[in-house]
């Protein structure tokens, strides 16, 4: 399948899950190689003063959510939505919906927001679905600046239960990992579409540790802090460990030049998920993939076919 020409090249090339990885020149990285020197010096001093203090610093940076400006197109999408909210652990999460019919849950990624998923809203509504997006804890218009994958998993399960039964789910980046864990915990999703899925977000903890220049042992200490805080083991957040137990049809899109989540994560997740389809794209990156017309059309077609199966 090839998309029509756009302002930027957006060719969709079907590949087998587990096909050859991109060239070394296209290898992505999720964050700059190092923090500014003053930040690294302060982090190193904290770790020397107390390993526990270094771990607390790493946890704080790892869980901090950077908010980004909302572009006009997303404000337009939200203007056409019905707004409500859901209470979760004392936080009020904004929820938006478009259309009527069986619900399709739209799940944003880390440092994202529900409005980023808005390109799917009108096409899903036109296909007879109710598209539902939300801002996860600490994201978008939701309160707080700290979040976590366990918090996002809880939000996926809570919103899914509130608007369900679900007819499908579309998730981006870390939202795909959260959705996989939620499905493993019992959220019923008849069919799912993942865009640029971060199959194993816990691995990013060590990337942040290296960015800060903290000692290697800080990663293990911080993992224990997070596991204790959220009563979960890191390995239980690995989507590829859960995927073999899931039977819902899955369609995965991932761009070979994704600069935030490696293409290999989407490929590996699709290979781990029984019967999943994997689609590579070129030059859509990590975010444009969410609003590419060909991607949206294929996703809606896939969910519609699964609904009729």
Would you kindly provide a written description of the structure presented here, covering whatever features stand out?
This protein has eleven helices and nine strands. By secondary structure, it is of the alpha/beta class. The relative contact order is 0.18. A nine-stranded mixed β-sheet has the order 1-9-8-7-6-4-5-3-2, sandwiched between helices. It has helices spanning 37-49, 51-63, 72-79, 121-126, 149-163, 174-184, 204-212, 217-230, 239-242, 263-272, 293-308, and strands at residues 12-14, 82-88, 91-98, 103-107, 130-134, 166-172, 192-195, 250-255, 277-281.
Distance between the termini: 22 Å
The helix-and-strand class reads alpha/beta
Low-confidence stretches: 1-31
Q: Note the main sheet.
A: 9 strands, mixed
> Fraction of residues in helices?
25-40%
* Count of discrete alpha- or pi-helical segments spanning 4 or more residues: 11
* Cα gyration radius (Å): 19 Å
Instruction: Output the strand order for the largest sheet.
Output: 1-9-8-7-6-4-5-3-2
Strand content: 15-25%
Which key phrases capture this entry?
single chain; 309 residues; alpha/beta; 9-stranded mixed beta sheet; 39% helix; disordered N terminus
Please describe the topology of this protein:
Layout: E1 12-14, H1 37-49, H2 51-63, H3 72-79, E2 82-88, E3 91-98, E4 103-107, H4 121-126, E5 130-134, H5 149-163, E6 166-172, H6 174-184, E7 192-195, H7 204-212, H8 217-230, H9 239-242, E8 250-255, H10 263-272, E9 277-281, H11 293-308
Parallel strand pairs: 4-5, 4-6, 6-7, 7-8, 8-9
Antiparallel strand pairs: 1-9, 2-3, 3-5
Helix pairs in contact: 1-2, 2-7, 2-8, 5-6
């Amino acid at each position: 399948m090839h998309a029509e020409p756009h302002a930027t090249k957006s060719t969709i090339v079907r590949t087998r899950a587990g096909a050859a990885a991109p060239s070394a020149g296209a290898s992505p990285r999720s964050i700059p190689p190092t923090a500014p020197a003053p930040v690294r010096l302060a982090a190193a001093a904290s770790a020397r003063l107390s390993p526990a203090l270094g771990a607390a610093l790493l946890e704080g940076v790892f869980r901090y959510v950077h908010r980004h400006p909302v572009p006009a197109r997303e404000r337009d999408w939200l203007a056409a939505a019905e707004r409500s909210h859901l209470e979760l652990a004392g936080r009020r999460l904004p929820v938006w919906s478009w259309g009527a019919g069986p619900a399709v849950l739209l799940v944003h990624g880390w440092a994202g927001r529900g409005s980023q998923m808005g390109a799917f809203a009108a096409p899903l509504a036109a296909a007879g679905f109710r598209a539902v997006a939300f801002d996860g804890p600490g994201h978008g218009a939701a309160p707080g600046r700290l979040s976590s994958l366990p918090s996002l998993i809880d939000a996926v399960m809570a919103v899914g239960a509130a608007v369900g039964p679900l007819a499908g789910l579309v998730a981006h980046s870390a939202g795909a990992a959260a959705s996989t864990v939620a499905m493993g915990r019992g959220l019923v999703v008849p069919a799912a579409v993942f865009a640029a899925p971060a199959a194993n977000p816990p691995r990013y903890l060590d990337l942040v540790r290296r960015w800060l220049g903290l000692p290697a042992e800080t990663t293990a200490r911080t993992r224990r802090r997070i596991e204790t805080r959220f009563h979960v083991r890191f390995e239980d957040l690995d989507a590829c460990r859960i995927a073999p137990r899931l039977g819902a049809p899955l369609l995965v899109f991932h761009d070979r030049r994704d600069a935030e989540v490696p293409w290999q994560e989407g490929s590996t997740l699709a290979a781990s998920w029984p019967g999943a389809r994997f689609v590579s794209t070129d030059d859509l990156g990590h975010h444009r993939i969410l609003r590419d017309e060909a991607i949206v059309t294929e996703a809606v077609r896939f969910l519609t076919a699964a609904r009729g199966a």
